[in-house]
């Protein structure tokens, strides 16, 4: 330990800490600068960027002792005092450049250094300066725009009214750009006990725990060890009823590299020097089943005794007579398509803390599904629900993986066992090794068409590698057959899926639940069909697109709201121009070749034929203040703002008058999970209903008519209509337990019908639709693919907040681009962010978003969900563009340079 | 846990002679290697040593101090023979990494994919090492022994990278191949240094390729074949035979296949040559 004296944000400080400790750790834990975010501890993500004597460095790579006598600046200090950073903060909010906000400190600090040296940078200078900070939400374009705008000092004023259809700045944005946002690792008091999980180093292994009591007794500062015997309730969890097959701690055998067997709790000092290799456990490595083929092979060991053949479950949709239709088709194309594990790679690793008090346990952690967490924790802990409280922190990206429990059970068990607060932040490698992934897929598909361009038969079989535990695998198995058709009319259709257990990390929910994988096969083969038929690929899609009154492959007929035709039509101008340009540019023998690709997608919003209600509550206090209990997790996508806009519009008051409460399972009713593109649609409807109910209550008190104008005042509400103006004296009304004198709480559950054995029924109340166009440049000598620009048309029914629609589109495209070109998770090999590559600021080209609004009768103000639609067409559009440029047929993603080059060579032979 | 920050080289060497300690320069390899693991109880920080940082010119050539960062290189005004090193400096990791990571650290870490090595190989760089026993100079090609292995002895520190005066008129180019724009570990990279005679024919050429062998390698047969060739855009199609690429022994890994690496390296070399053809003297 040493006293390290330095200037922190203009203030002289002295930190008592080991000089060799990472500066990030010392700034956060000793100096309280929790605005310095830790995403990787390896210099790969840049979230911890700080300025040392004005130069941006990764605090995680800087020995704390080295800053003695120097100036250190972090986001919170810069945002408070530096006019350049304040301008950046304003620009980030105006452009929607902060979504979840976890990368925002790194981005803004790096951008501050740039603007100090280069006051009005261009886009390339911005990208060069910010290339060391990863963002997984925004797709970077809004960040580039914000920094360029801040440099030129052309930042639009915040003039949006907040009404539905306008783009007010995000309601929860200020803390994100000021360094005040509190994520999973930012809420525990310094000095809190820390937890480390002991995990299997092998894909499959038996194990024996040694004398853990002796280990605790012999190791100073270690307070407790937890293992399966410490689980008072059910040592199993999962998200789908009947598939709760993942233990908190393995009992006899670990089923994947990263499976937990025990946890160690100790003081921060003890945990800093704790070496997991010293933990008393012996392993017996056993042969794993690394692939579905090996797991299905005769004699393969069963991962779960009740799942014969290691088959988790499957799904099926069948209509018409696909075999006969394929037989009579004039043209049939087929292919086998493969994809690997994809990592969510949010910049915030799973983190939180738990505290036991008053006979209850509270878990403060990042999550997408607080009430599901609460239910599952209650079962694990053997406690009634009301003795478990989940208080979500801000979430630094989720994309599906934070729907599942990760660190929460360990924390809750440890807090209850030790009686003291306990915290954990997963390391990057632990996060990558132990949490869910996108399912690898192996898809066989045949599609036929007749000469007139009509689809004639579709036969799909998809094997999905679900890893060691079910997680959301059943959802993937169910969703894929429903969606594999794409948004097209296919009368003769068979789609079968199977989910297979393997000794890999559990594959779960990831933006699209298997649909991005199946869309690659379907949309790529559509281009090949169109080619064979001599029909323009866009015309071919338009010809077969679903429309109002046309049945889906599930036999569901939407009388209204089918927007795929409008999305495709919206691309027509760009399509014609870009294809003509590409033709003109591509000279014979040129190494660089340009291609233009298109693909479409659809996605059913909400759970598949299952209830998924949301409840939104609101109240007005005697003093006239209005509160919205908003439990729909905002993981960066903007639910806090969008739900509030819908509620305010329905109630008929300005958005600015509303204050948000929650999320907290003690105070916010269940608004369901943030997944399945359901929050705008389902929770949005609950908010609309709640707004309408509160309005009706107010009108009743005033005995006023429907169209009355409401004005919230200090202790009163003024209600004005044609009959005059009345004033409700709020102090005269009795307050309820929450202090509300007027209140509402409404629930919405989308109307669906069950699917029969052939997958026929009404799986969703609404679908959203999308079509992407991409222009790529392919380096045919090196196999490098550079997307030059995207045009993305999305039918969102009604854009509640158009800026946030663009934010979703940009972020989805960046993830789709990563899936298409660079991302593949290999257990044990790519457990960091330099071997597992996600797009950087230099990899995402300009994106033009075309918002299509084909109103949906079920959606709030016509709105449809959007969260997953945004990445479904991206990867197939890129593959189609590569083929257009070079003739290369890519059947496997990611299309890494070596795979692309090999495919180009194959196409030439 | 202590971090010793000596102010002089002799102090640092005395400490190391006393007991082996992990050393930290930029920290850009030190900390990532210890993610999720305890930090060592003690280490030696080299960045406080007087005279360790900066680029100096003397009668024999150029001296790049061991604590010189990539940003220092990128901002330095250097002759055209350093253009490959200059370009590599802007491609190492990110601005944050370039501000901390050092040239000498890049060599000592001895990654097969170290971006700094090919540009320094074509500069015929020499590594200066010191211990209490004295100073020795080792050609860079002899300093790097294999992945994570160098000729550095216990108790020894790299004090500088020395670059002899480049041949008059020499110019250099660097090409790096990766799967994304920033923060990317190279699949392959190539550095080419050339000088031409009065008629534009190559009379000196050095070519080094990285990430395609345990340590980056020069390609002598290719160099020999290029002598006397006109340095023109036609080199973009120069045929690189197996013999010329023989020093390369690429492997399959998560970034690329061996075959792709080999073909890619050859293409990078051609492009670097073409780059130099497009930017003739003056």
Radius of gyration of chain B: 19 Å
Percentage of residues in DSSP E strands of chain B: 15-25%
Q: What is the C-level CATH assignment of the largest domain in chain A?
A: Alpha Beta
The H-level CATH homologous superfamily of the largest domain in chain A, spelled out, is Aldehyde oxidase/xanthine dehydrogenase, molybdopterin binding domain
Number of helices of chain A: 24
Alpha-beta content class of chain B: alpha+beta
Rg of chain A to the nearest angstrom?
A: 27 Å
Strand order across the largest sheet of chain A: 8-10-6-17-14-15-16
Oligomer: heterodimer
Largest interface: A-B, 65 and 48 residues
Q: Give me the CATH fold name of the largest domain in chain A.
A: Aldehyde Oxidoreductase, domain 4
The SS-based structural class of chain A is alpha+beta
**Overall pLDDT of chain A:** 97
Strand elements of chain A, count: 32
Helical fraction of chain B equals 25-40%
Number of folding domains of chain B? 2
How would you describe what is shown here?
The complex is a heterodimer of chains A (about 900) and B (about 280). Chain A is α+β, with helices and mostly antiparallel strands. Chain A folds into four domains: about 180 residues, Ubiquitin-like (UB roll); about 170 residues, Aldehyde Oxidoreductase, domain 3 (Alpha-Beta Complex); about 300 residues, Aldehyde Oxidoreductase, domain 4 (2-Layer Sandwich), CATH 3.30.365; about 140 residues, Aldehyde Oxidoreductase, domain 4 (2-Layer Sandwich), CATH 3.30.365. In chain A, the strands form seven sheets. In chain A, strands 8-10-6-17-14-15-16 form a seven-stranded mixed beta sheet, sandwiched between helices. In chain A, strands 12-20-19-18-13-32 form a six-stranded mixed beta sheet, with helices on both faces. In chain A, strands 2-1-5-3-4 form a five-stranded mixed beta sheet, with helices on both faces. The model of chain A has no long low-confidence stretch (mean pLDDT about 95). Chain B has about 280 residues and is α+β, with helices and mostly antiparallel strands. In chain B, about 25% of the residues lie in helices and about 25% in strands. Chain B has nine helices and 14 strands. A five-stranded antiparallel beta sheet of chain B has the order 4-5-10-6-7. A four-stranded antiparallel beta sheet of chain B has the order 11-12-13-14. Chain B has a three-stranded parallel beta sheet with strand order 1-3-2, with no helix packed on it. In chain B, a hairpin with a 5-residue loop joins strand 12 and strand 13. The longest helix of chain B has 21 residues. The chains are: A alpha+beta (about 900), B alpha+beta (about 280). The interface between A and B is large, with 65 and 48 residues.
């Amino acid at each position: 330990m040493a006293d390290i004296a330095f200037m922190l944000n203009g203030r002289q400080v002295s930190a008592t800490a080991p000089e060799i400790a990472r500066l990030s750790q010392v700034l956060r834990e000793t100096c309280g600068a929790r605005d310095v975010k830790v995403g990787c501890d390896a210099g790969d993500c840049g979230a911890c960027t700080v300025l040392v004597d004005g130069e941006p460095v990764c605090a995680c790579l800087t020995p704390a002792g080295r800053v003695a006598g120097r100036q250190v600046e972090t986001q919170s200090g810069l945002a408070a005092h530096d006019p350049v950073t304040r301008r950046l903060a304003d620009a980030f909010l105006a452009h929607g450049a902060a979504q979840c906000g976890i990368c925002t400190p790194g981005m803004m600090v790096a951008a501050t250094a740039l603007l100090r040296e280069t006051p009005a940078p261009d886009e390339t200078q911005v990208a060069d300066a910010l290339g060391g900070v990863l963002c997984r939400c925004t797709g970077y374009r809004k960040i580039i725009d914000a920094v360029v705008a801040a440099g030129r000092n052309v930042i639009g004023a915040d003039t949006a009214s907040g009404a539905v259809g306008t783009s007010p700045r995000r309601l929860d944005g200020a803390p994100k750009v000021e360094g005040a946002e509190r994520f999973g690792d930012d809420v525990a008091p310094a000095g809190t006990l820390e937890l480390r999980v002991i995990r299997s180093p092998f894909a499959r292994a038996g194990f024996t725990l040694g004398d853990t009591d002796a280990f605790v007794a012999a190791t100073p500062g270690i307070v407790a060890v937890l293992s399966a015997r410490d689980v008072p309730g059910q040592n199993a969890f999962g998200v789908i009823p009947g598939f709760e097959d993942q233990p908190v701690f393995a009992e006899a055998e670990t089923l994947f590299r990263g499976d937990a067997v025990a946890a160690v709790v100790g003081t921060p000092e003890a945990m800093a020097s704790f070496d997991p290799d010293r933990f008393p456990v012996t392993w017996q490595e056993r042969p794993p089943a690394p692939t579905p083929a090996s797991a299905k092979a005769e004699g393969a060991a069963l991962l779960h005794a009740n799942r014969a053949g290691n088959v988790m479950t499957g799904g099926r949709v069948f209509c018409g007579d696909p075999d006969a239709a394929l037989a009579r088709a004039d043209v049939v194309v087929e292919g086998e398509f493969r994809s690997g594990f994809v990592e969510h790679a949010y910049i915030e690793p799973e983190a939180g803390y738990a505290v036991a008090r008053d006979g209850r346990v509270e878990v403060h952690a990042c999550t997408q599904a607080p009430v599901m967490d609460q239910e599952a924790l209650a079962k694990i802990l053997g406690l009634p629900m009301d003795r478990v409280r989940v208080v979500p922190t801000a979430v630094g990206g989720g994309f599906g993986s934070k729907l599942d429990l990760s660190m929460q059970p360990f924390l809750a068990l440890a807090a209850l066992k030790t009686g003291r607060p306990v915290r954990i932040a997963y390391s990057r490698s632990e996060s990558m090794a132990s949490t869910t992934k996108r399912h690898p897929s192996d898809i066989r598909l045949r599609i036929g068409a007749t000469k007139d361009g009509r689809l004639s038969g579709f036969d799909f079989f998809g094997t999905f590698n679900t890893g060691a535990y079910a997680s959301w695998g059943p959802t993937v198995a169910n969703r894929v057959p429903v969606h594999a058709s794409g948004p097209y009319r296919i009368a003769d259709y068979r789609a079968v899926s199977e989910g297979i257990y393997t000794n890999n990390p559990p594959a779960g929910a990831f933006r699209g639940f298997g649909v991005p994988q199946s869309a690659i096969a379907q949309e790529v083969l559509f281009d090949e069909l169109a080619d064979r038929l001599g029909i323009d690929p866009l015309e071919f899609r338009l010809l077969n697109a679903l429309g109002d009154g046309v049945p889906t492959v599930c036999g569901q007929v939407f009388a209204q709201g089918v927007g795929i035709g409008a999305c495709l039509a919206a691309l027509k101008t760009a399509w014609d121009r870009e294809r003509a340009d590409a033709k003109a540019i591509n000279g014979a023998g040129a190494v660089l070749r340009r291609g233009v690709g298109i693909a479409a997608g659809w996605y059913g919003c909400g759970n598949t034929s299952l209830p998924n209600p949301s409840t939104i509550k609101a109240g007005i206090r005697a003093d006239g203040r209005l509160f919205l209990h908003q439990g729909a997790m905002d993981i960066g996508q903007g639910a806090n703002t969008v739900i509030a806009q819908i509620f305010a519009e329905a109630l008929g008051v300005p958005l600015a008058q509303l204050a948000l409460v929650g999320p907290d399972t003690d105070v916010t009713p269940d608004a369901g999970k943030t997944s399945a593109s359901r929050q705008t649609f389902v929770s949005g409807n609950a908010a609309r209903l709640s707004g309408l109910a509160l309005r009706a209550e107010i009108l009743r008190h005033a005995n006023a008519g429907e169209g009355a104008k409401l004005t919230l005042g200090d202790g009163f509400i003024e209600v004005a209509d044609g009959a005059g103006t009345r004033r409700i004296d709020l102090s005269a009304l009795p307050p309820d337990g929450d202090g509300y004198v007027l209140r509402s709480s409404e629930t919405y559950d989308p109307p669906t019908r069950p699917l029969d054995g052939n997958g026929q029924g009404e799986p969703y109340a609404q679908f959203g639709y999308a079509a992407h166009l991409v222009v790529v440049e392919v380096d045919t000598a090196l196999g490098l693919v550079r997307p030059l620009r995207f045009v993305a048309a999305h039918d969102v029914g009604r854009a509640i907040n158009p800026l946030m629609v663009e934010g979703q589109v940009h972020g989805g495209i960046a993830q789709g681009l990563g899936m298409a070109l660079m991302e593949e998770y290999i257990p044990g090999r790519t457990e960091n962010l330099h071997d597992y590559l996600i797009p950087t600021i230099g990899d995402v080209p300009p994106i033009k978003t075309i918002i299509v609004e084909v109103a949906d009768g079920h959606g709030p103000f016509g709105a449809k969900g959007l969260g997953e639609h945004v990445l479904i067409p991206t990867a197939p559009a890129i593959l189609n563009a590569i083929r257009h440029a070079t003739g290369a047929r890519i059947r496997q993603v990611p299309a890494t340079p070596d795979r692309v080059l090999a495919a180009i060579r194959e196409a030439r032979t | 846990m202590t971090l010793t920050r000596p102010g002089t080289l002799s102090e640092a060497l005395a400490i190391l002679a006393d007991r082996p300690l992990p050393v930290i320069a930029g920290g850009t390899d030190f900390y990532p290697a210890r993610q999720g693991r305890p930090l060592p109880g003690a280490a030696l920080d080299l960045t406080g040593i007087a005279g360790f940082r900066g680029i100096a010119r003397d009668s024999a050539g150029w001296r790049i101090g061991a604590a010189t960062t990539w940003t220092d290189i990128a901002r330095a005004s250097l002759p055209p023979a350093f253009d490959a090193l200059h370009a590599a400096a802007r491609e190492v990791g990110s601005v944050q990494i370039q501000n901390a990571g050092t040239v000498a650290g890049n060599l000592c870490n001895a990654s097969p994919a170290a971006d700094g090595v090919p540009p320094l190989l074509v500069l015929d760089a020499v590594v200066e090492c010191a211990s209490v026993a004295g100073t020795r100079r080792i050609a860079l090609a002899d300093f790097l022994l294999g992945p994570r292995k160098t000729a550095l002895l216990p108790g020894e520190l790299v004090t500088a990278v020395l670059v002899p005066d480049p041949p008059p008129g020499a110019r250099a180019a660097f090409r790096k191949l990766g799967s994304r724009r920033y923060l990317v570990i190279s699949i392959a990279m190539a550095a080419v240094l050339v000088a031409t005679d009065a008629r534009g024919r190559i009379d000196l050429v050095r070519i080094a390729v990285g990430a395609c062998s345990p340590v980056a390698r020069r390609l002598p047969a290719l160099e020999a074949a290029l002598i006397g060739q006109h340095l023109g855009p036609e080199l973009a199609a120069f045929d690189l035979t197996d013999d010329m690429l023989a020093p390369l022994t690429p492997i399959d890994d998560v970034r690329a296949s061996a075959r792709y690496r080999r073909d890619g390296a050859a293409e990078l070399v051609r492009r670097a040559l073409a780059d130099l053809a497009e930017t003739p003297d003056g």
